[in-house]
Design brief:
Shape: globular
Low-confidence stretches: none
Number of domains: 2
Order of helices and strands: HHHHHEHEHEEEHEEHHHHHHHHHHH
Largest sheet: 5 strands, mixed
Structural class: alpha+beta
Strand content: 5-15%
Radius of gyration: 23 Å
Amino acid sequence: MNQFSDNFCAMVYLTGCALNKTKPERGRLESISPDALLRECEHNAAAALVAYALKDWLKDESIFTPEQAAKWTSVSNNALRRMVLLQGERERLRAFLEKKHIWYMFLKGTQMMKYYPTPALREMMDTDLLVDDTKAEIIHDFMVQNGYEVHEYMQSKHDCYQKPPVYEVEFHRSLFGTHHPRHAAYFKDIKSRLLPVKEGSYEYRFSDDDFYIYLIAHSIKHLGWRGLSIKALADTYLYLQAKTLNWDYITQELEKLQISRQEEQLRSLTLKLFAAESQTSIPELTGAERSMLAIIAQAGDYGSEEGDIRSKIRTDETIDFDNQRASHSEKRKYVRARIFLSKEQVQRWYPYFAEHKGARPFLIFYRIGQALTTKRKKVTNEIKTISRS
């Protein structure tokens, strides 16, 4: 683990303590910087979880100053307030969807929070739902009438709405987009495989086995895209502890998605990091597990620019964590696509040149100027990423 920062390693250790409800060892805390650790945890949306692990130590002034202890206590209080607000809004959304007879299914963190020591420990930036894709207009009108600002509507696989102070809702019409055709095809028409939450309700859920398949497919998609956060591993760990799963069925379905090996690697990494008997030290990792953890360490909760570039270079939908290197032909194809923009890209990124065809021949010089001035750092990082990929 020496390629990972001390703060990241401390966060992983303390996350495991929280998940297993074990008290951290004093010796592991004496060398940490509480402020730097807090920044690392906030970057990974794991601050509330780590604060829970630290709660019995916050009054020890040999480890935390009163000001530092107050910051960590505030993290826990803010997480609880946020959860209360979000849960209240989810109930309002549920009431609306039931009233309008629109089938729906809550996704991701909303489903996972019940497995945490307390629900507020599962930090969430938004609420995700899968809904009847024929009802987007009805949902749009309701959200606008209730004070939400439309951030995305009918442009991709989901519509996004935001409202102060903390509300962000994504209504998904499908679980995966066109950039992941195998996943999209597998989860197409998923409604027929869902189970009603209760009789007479329009709310649905996955079976336990299918939820795990979705959880893993979603995680591996993000590992191969902008990256994955540590809380996704926490989700996996808690779900594995809570459920008795049909592994024959799961393996069969993961093979259809061509991610059975990646699931085994991700599950192995998760158990190595968080299993209670592993808490006294960081375990040895395989090359694939180390590659996965490196992506997680870089990504944080929002993903990394480097991960986004790597995903665009590779042509295979699913990343091979045993060999992440892109081929020379993949790199050449990516570079050509970055130099010679499509008509749609010009319209999106350079609308002036799209509207004034006479100026179009000068676009290349304008972009070179950007690369040498305002976008120099970004272009330099992109070149380095291409070289390392």
